[in-house]
Amino acid sequence: MNIDEIETFITLVQEKNFTKTAEKRSLSQPTVSVQIKNLENQFQTQFIRRTTRQIFLTEDGHFFYKEALKIQNIYRTIHESLYARHHEASGLLKIGASFTIGEYLLPQMIASLKGLYPNLTFAITIANTDTIMQKVQHFDVDFGLVEGTIKAKNIEQTPFKHDQLVIICSTHDVENYQTVHDLQNQRWVIREEGSGTRESFEALIETFQLTIHSSITISSTQGIKEGVKNGLGLALISESAIQEELRNGSLQVLNHLHMNTARQFSFIHRQGVPVTKNTNLFLKHALPSK
């Protein structure tokens, strides 16, 4: 007796027809007959009586059908349990993320994945893009989520989301910036060297030929926002990082100057190194599409 014969017997009882059973089980009709006969021979009894038009269960057939359903259920439970043992996600996933992603996007991604795979644990490193790239190179993290362009040859970079960078100012200063010319000789609050946002800021300054009066470097997105709120200057920042401030009106975006710039958020990992099962789950269930 094997599970295929039991499945065929159960299907035959339910369909009450050899031809339909053969179709449903993707078998030939003679094979269905052989499998039923094998069961009857093994238990030395008759389960099925058939006429030219119908089949009937014997008393032993009714008994065996009830027990066969139990066997089928036990088999499926074992199969599902063994599959789960080999495929269920567990263990530690080490993620490196640049500040904007790590502070404003990654918590929601992790919550989404944790809801599906509660046995996963996470270790998160938040730093600028250059630092995260180095951690990927040195295998300190399983993968990185960064902004900007990675130039290292041993790193594979895959964009996963568009990001919009905007110029922000404090609410009481917004009237001072009516044209692009008004941005000349202004104070700026900027990110440190190695940051993807710093790279974009330098490109913006060069594109519009802006002269900087002075700058304050803060290696934190939250610190930059607080600096701008307190009148320390202008800043270029991801729109993803200021949603709460836009809702409560504590920061203003200079959209009317049409100086916003786009960039990509990217998934990075060490070239030539196979992606782990847990990383693949993150890519499938947590990472937003572009």
Automatic annotation (TrEMBL):
Keywords: DNA-binding, Transcription, Transcription regulation
Domain HTH lysR-type per the UniProt entry, residue ranges: 1-58
Alphabetical list of InterPro entries matching this protein: LysR_HTH_N, LysR_subst-bd, WH-like_DNA-bd_sf, WH_DNA-bd_sf
Domain of life: Bacteria
GO MF term (any one): transcription cis-regulatory region binding
Family: Belongs to the LysR transcriptional regulatory family.
Protein name: Transcriptional regulator
Organism: Alkalicoccobacillus plakortidis
